[in-house]
Write a structure and sequence with these properties.
CATH superfamily: Aldolase class I
Radius of gyration: 16 Å
Oligomer: single chain
Distance between the termini: 25 Å
Number of domains: 1
Strand content: 15-25%
């Protein structure tokens, strides 16, 4: 799957209003969704992921499972996103097949060098600044994000404190793909928040 035109990536945990929230942000312009739940058991993750995947399918938006290629395979999800300490990319690719989306997090130049040799669909780089969604992980800074975007031959989604107000500055250093968490999951009006991000990203990538 070509990810070059997909730029607004929502990473979310489960929530009581999952269906309503997801519909609002997809209406607002989110074009990739990842379900990331570090607490729920497999059965709960599968149940909630089925609902999220059904909604994403209506919008032709890829649905990604976090960390668990086995659950992604069971669901028939579009792919999986793994971190440096999760299942290796090679295993994910064997399990899910050549057509599946495989994403990998990177946080340093050393990790990036290795990632560039792996059969990934996309990479993430960050967090640019420290964020509560990644407790204990310091920010990597904008220079690392810029390098990752410049060196990779696959899309690089930058993470860590992305807001509509910060998109232009990140765009100025070569970033064109963005992972968003709190700017959407904590928004009082998810549709308007997604729409603002979408407009900011479209403006930054056309500049």
């Amino acid at each position: 799957m070509d990810f070059s035109d997909r730029r607004l990536y929502l990473c979310m945990s489960d929530r009581e209003d999952l269906a309503d929230f997801l519909t609002q942000v997809l209406d607002g312009g989110v074009d990739i969704v990842q379900l990331r739940d570090k607490v729920a058991d497999a059965a709960s993750q599968l149940r909630r992921a089925e609902l999220a995947m059904e909604i994403c399918a209506r919008y032709n938006v890829p649905f990604i499972m976090n960390d668990r290629p086995d659950l992604a395979l069971h669901l028939g999800a579009d792919g999986v996103h793994v971190g440096q300490d999760d299942a290796p990319v090679s295993l994910c690719r064997r399990l899910l097949g050549e057509a599946s989306i495989i994403g990998l997090s990177t946080h340093s130049n050393e990790e990036l060098e290795v990632a560039l040799t792996l059969p990934v669909t996309y990479l993430s780089a960050g967090p640019v600044e420290a964020t509560p969604t990644k407790p204990g992980r310091p920010g990597v800074g904008a220079s690392y994000a810029a390098r990752a975007c410049a060196d990779a031959t696959v899309p690089v989604f930058v993470t860590g404190g992305v807001t509509a107000e910060k998109v232009r500055g990140l765009g100025d250093i070569g970033v064109s793909h963005f992972v968003v968490v709190r700017a959407l999951t904590e928004a009082k009006e998810p549709f308007r928040a997604a729409q603002a991000l979408r407009l900011a990203i479209d403006a930054a990538t056309k500049a």
